[in-house]
UniProtKB/TrEMBL annotation:
MF GO annotations: DNA binding
Residues annotated as domain HTH tetR-type: 4-65
Lineage of the organism: Bacteria, Bacillati, Bacillota, Bacilli, Lactobacillales
Organism: Vagococcus salmoninarum
Coiled-coil positions: none
Record-linked Gene3D superfamilies: Tetracycline Repressor, domain 2
Name of the protein described by the UniProt record: HTH tetR-type domain-containing protein
Keywords assigned by UniProt, alphabetized: DNA-binding
UniProt DNA-binding region: 28-47
Length: 190
């Protein structure tokens, strides 16, 4: 068997085990290697760590759900409304894959390079039309996305603190509207 086949089997095994697991954080490297019919050392060889493999598997699952995002983005809408809809779409995916957040959010926030979905950054840049530096648009995008991811990870604590239930669609939509209004302000509103 060639290396790419082994790498693909490991990724597929991780995806299958994570999707089937009630508690994905309990899936072990040994289980993944056994399911893939691969040597345990191959996980580190191809992915550098079990965490990297697991997060690539989660990213692959979520990427499938993000593909229809283009249908959500109506370029006829003003940027605030588009940003709200894109954020809402991503939040709906987070709710659907709540069981993965304990694994994916800390890894994304602490181990991976900082990044945000390009759609979000483009909408923010369009809204500000070069009135603010690109770095500021990037900071706004990062603040919205990373804080929202943190709130999903700490949803119970955030609910106790604020009364906002991130699992409730209506509460989540109110939170997102507030975030969009907070960060996308016209010059006259500042």
């Amino acid at each position: 068997m060639d290396e790419q086949d082994t790498k693909g089997r490991l990724l597929s095994a991780a995806i299958n085990l994570l999707l089937a697991a009630e508690f994905p954080n309990k899936v072990t490297a040994r289980q993944i290697a056994k399911e893939a019919d691969a040597n345990l050392a191959m996980i580190n060889y191809f992915f550098k760590s079990k965490d990297e493999l697991v997060n690539q598997a989660i990213a692959a699952v979520i990427e499938e759900k993000v593909k229809p995002l283009a249908s959500v983005i109506d370029n006829q809408l003003e940027p605030r409304e588009r940003l709200y809809r894109v954020l809402n779409y991503y939040c709906d995916i987070s709710v659907a894959f709540q069981k993965f957040l304990e694994l994916s959010v800390p890894y994304k926030l602490l181990a991976k390079p900082l990044e945000v979905p390009m759609e979000i950054l483009e909408i923010i840049e369009e809204f500000y039309q070069h009135r603010i530096p690109v770095q500021y648009s990037r900071m706004i995008a990062l603040q919205i996305t990373s804080f929202t991811e943190l709130l999903f990870l700490r949803a119970a604590d955030f609910r106790a603190y604020s009364g906002i239930n991130m699992g409730d669609k209506r509460h989540r939509e109110q939170y997102l509207r507030f975030q969009v209004e907070l960060f996308l302000q016209d010059k006259s509103e500042e």
